[in-house]
């Protein structure tokens, strides 16, 4: 009794199919790779964290020194103006009443106010030259102008200049041009010198 012969694969026949990977092996490979990545990230994070903490743990050395120096210098500057104030105040009080001057002092060249007798003699002398020289009710003005003329008499030696100055000072040139002559000016200077400043 003969057995049927098993067919032998020919040279052109397809090879038998290979067995694929199982689902369990694929799952194990994926889980293992994920765990490896997580482990790597954990080690890297630990290294970076250690460098940050070591850098942040350094205590600041220069900052606490600044506030300690400022309060020590502040009180030393404050009391200085209080000690100098009383030393300057008495000096100012002593030098204040030092320079009063009146217009009738010999230094200014203007004589003091004449007494009643000299005043009246001076006004009479002006009226004798011309009654219009003294304005009505302006006797004090005429006396003041005569005292100012004394100051010019003390400083000017030229009689012609003194005469012209008297005509201008008593406003004769503008008010009374008919008598605005050198003779009138010389007469006024003579009256001023005789009764207000005889020592000029």
Question: What's the topology here?
Answer:
Layout: H1 23-56, H2 65-77, H3 80-95, H4 116-129, H5 139-155, H6 159-169, H7 172-175, H8 182-195
Helix pairs in contact: 4-8, 5-6, 6-8
- Indicate the low-confidence ranges by residue numbers: 53-76, 81-104
Oligomer: single chain
Order of helices and strands: HHHHHHHH
Class of secondary structure makeup: mainly alpha
Q: Tell me the Rg in angstroms.
A: 63 Å
Helix-residue proportion: 55-70%
The number of helical segments is 8
Largest beta sheet, briefly? none
Report the sheet-strand fraction.
under 5%
Number of strands: 0
What is the overall silhouette?
rod-shaped
Mean pLDDT: 73
N→C terminal distance: 189 Å
Question: What features would you describe in this structure?
Answer:
With 200 residues, this protein is mainly α. The chain is rod-shaped and about 155 Å long. The chain contains eight helices and no strands. Helix content is 62%, strand content 0%. Helix 4 runs antiparallel to helix 8, helix 5 runs antiparallel to helix 6 (159-169) and helix 6 (159-169) crosses helix 8 (182-195). Residues 53-76 and 81-104 have low confidence and may be disordered. It starts with 22 loop residues before the first helix and ends in a 5-residue tail after the last helix.
């Amino acid at each position: 009794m003969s057995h049927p012969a098993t067919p032998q694969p020919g040279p052109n026949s397809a090879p038998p199919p290979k067995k694929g990977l199982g689902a369990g092996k694929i799952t194990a490979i994926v889980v293992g790779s994920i765990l490896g990545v997580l482990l790597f990230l954990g080690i890297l994070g630990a290294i970076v964290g250690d460098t940050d903490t070591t850098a942040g743990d350094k205590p600041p050395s220069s900052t606490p020194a600044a506030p300690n120096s400022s309060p020590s210098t502040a009180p030393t500057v404050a009391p200085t103006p209080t000690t100098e104030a009383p030393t300057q105040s008495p000096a100012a009080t002593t030098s204040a009443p030092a320079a009063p001057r009146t217009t009738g002092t010999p230094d200014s060249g203007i004589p003091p106010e004449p007494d009643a007798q000299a005043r009246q003699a001076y006004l009479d002398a002006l009226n004798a030259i011309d009654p219009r020289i003294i304005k009505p009710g302006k006797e004090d003005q005429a006396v003041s102008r005569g005292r100012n003329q004394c100051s010019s008499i003390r400083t000017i030696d030229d009689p012609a200049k003194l005469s012209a100055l008297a005509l201008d000072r008593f406003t004769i040139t503008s008010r009374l041009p008919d008598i605005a002559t050198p003779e009138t000016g010389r007469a006024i200077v003579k009256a001023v010198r005789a009764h207000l400043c005889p020592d000029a």
